[in-house]
Amino acid sequence: MFLMRFTERAYVNYTEEDVRNSPNEAVRLTFSNSNFDPQEGHYLYNMYLDEYEYSEEVGFDGLMLNEHHNTPTCLGATMNLEAAILARNTKNTKIVLLGNPLPIFDNPIRLAEELAEIDMISGGRLVSGFVRGTGVESLATNTNPLHNRARFEEAHDLVIKTWTTPGPFRWEGDHYHFRVVNPFQVPMQKPHPPVWIPGTGSPETLVWCAERNYPYIFLETDPQGTQDMKAIYAEAARENGYEPGPENFGYLVRIHVQDTDEKAYDVGKGYMVGNIGVGRIPLPRDYASPVGYGSRSDDPRFLRLREQIRSDPFRVGGLDGAQYDSILDSKRWIIGSPDTVISQLREVLSFMRPGILAVWTNDGSISHEDTMRCLELMGQEVLPALREIGEELELTDPFQKEGVQPGLTAL
Amino acid sequence: MANFTEETISVAGGNLQVYKGGSGDPLLVLHGAGGNAGPRRYAQALAEKFTVYLPSHPGYGKSDRPGWVETMQDLACFYTWYQEQEGLENVRAIGFSMGGWLAAEMLSMTGHAFSRVMLVGAAGIKPVDGEITDIFIINPGQIRDLAYHDPGQVPEWDEMFGSAPTPEQTDQAESDREMAIRLTWRPYMHNPRLPAKLGRVSVPTHIVWGENDNLVPVECADLYQQALAGSQVTVLPNCGHSPQIEKPDDFVQTALAFL
Question: Is residue A411 very low, low, confident or very high in pLDDT (cuts 50, 70, 90)?
């Protein structure tokens, strides 16, 4: 099992009132950057990088980063910069980018260059995930949401070709046009850095991943619904001639550990102002998912799944719309002492069977001190136990897979 | 009241939904980004003097959505195609909001499209001082609140907005909004090259604006007037973005005086 550590690197120095007073009462997109203090930013960026470097020290296999725009909920606006720093300052962990939002890049060649540099600086430790981005990413970068999926697919094809086909060549697509594709820097890993795709279960993306043998990382999805999503992936995988295993799937969970259950319970409340922001005010629908961004597929399997996703009790507003205790009761967040966390995770891992576990150790207002203690306990007790559970349950990860490694399917 | 019919004709390989009513010379009415509201009171009144053609733009209402109609210039090409096919060249026309922009694009492409054109709260030219409201980051209720200066004076308010929309109406509105996003996303609701191209226009044009337009600033009336030689401007007081709905009697009077 591959164990990677994640946080969204929140900025929480603002109030609910600040959000209420912003256009459309939104914490993303239009929440004024006059609410941001770069002095605090200086402190936070360095603190978050310190925590990531310490995560390598305590034994994580990977450091997972993400990216969002126009929001205090995630300071990673250009995650490739943070990745480049970690590429230099760490030695062994994979640097897992989940992921670069392809549709918002007007120049994917530049992205291919940045990722190639990160891969070389790190000595071939890059895992290059790609995402469509939320509606906010499209709006913040003025990318037409109607073309989001088409741009995602075309930019992906262009980046992979740039990495795997000797230049110069010309690219005349529907959304991208380049007369001379020939960046001199290419990735160290061959045929290219592994590609993993995170998401919340869009059926079209599941099929697209399965067709390419790309691992799919479920982001805090409802466990029951996830079984149906995996079935969609598996069906498409079989149509493409392979049987997917744990190495094709990952799962992101908020997991926080402290010395006692009581302490962890108190500290864990800090997550509540993480990715939904201080005040926990749901985003306007036209921000999160503008008209035209979603799919209009009428495939009955997809419609059934969409209905199931809708009926997830935590779906409306995501987990972030729910109360703390009900989230904990449902084991969608795992918070407690090392023993508590390990026993709950055994249950989750048995049911979900991911080869990749993304451990969202802290967020929101959880302090640096509490985060460091959490990481320390992870290293001392939780990660070793998880490795044993992983072996016992045969949760093979992509790097352990014999034969074709998922994520490396060049075009 | 004129009797309107709804018909579907084939244009450029796809179906086009057209409301048609009245008698007399043809009058082509081009709806705005929000979609085709059908023959409202103003259209009924105009149909007393003209044969009113009120098509749903490609991608709107029941009209097909050809893949090649991506931009306002594509849409203008579609409509000149429609005009040639249906013998509707050199006709009178009114364009509302995005439909006004459409009419202006057609004027910039050919001298054969229209004999006289009225542009009402027209998008298409970038304001100098203000901004065209970004309708894609606010919801339909917010758009409506901005569109009308005084809902109390809208005679068809109850009929149009009195009850909650049905699921079918909501779906249609989303589909229409999707088409608006396709056509007008970037540059948003304007064409930087349009004012220069309007220099070729020689047919009479009349620019109408609600004084209190909160969607497309009234300064755009002046900008259109500067771009269209010899054009007239009428600004209707105490009126929002859609004079034809908010003040139909005043609007029709202005329209008939010009057309």
Answer: very low
Using DSSP's 3-state secondary structure scheme, residue B190 falls into strand
Q: Which of residues 200-239 of B touch A (CB under 8 A)?
A: none
Q: Which fold has domain B4-258?
A: Rossmann fold (3.40.50)
Q: Is A142 touching B (CB cutoff 8 A)?
A: yes
CATH of domain A2-392: 3.20.20.30
Residues 6+ apart with CB under 8 A from A332: A220, A222, A253, A254, A314, A319
**Residues of chain B neighbouring A145 (CB-CB closer than 8 A):** 181
Instruction: Measure in Å the smallest separation between the Cα of B139 and chain A Cα atoms.
Output: 7
Judging contacts by C-beta atoms under 8 Å, the chain A residues touching residue B137 are 24, 29-30, 139, 284, 286-287
Q: Extract the residue ranges of chain B whose pLDDT is less than 50.
A: none
Rounded to an integer, what distance in angstroms lies between the CA atom of residue A386 and that of residue A397? 13
pLDDT at A248 over 60: yes
pLDDT tens-place string over residues A58-104: 999 999 999 999 999 999 999 999 999 999 999 999 999 999 999 99
Asked if B181 and A292 touch (Cβ cutoff 8 Å), the reply is yes
Contact status of B159 with chain A (Cβ, < 8 Å): no
pLDDT at site A303:
72
Confidence band, pLDDT 50/70/90 cuts, at residue A318: low
User: What is the largest distance, in Å, between two alpha-carbon atoms of chain A?
Assistant: 61
Does the CB of A103 have a partner CB in chain B at under 8 Å?
no
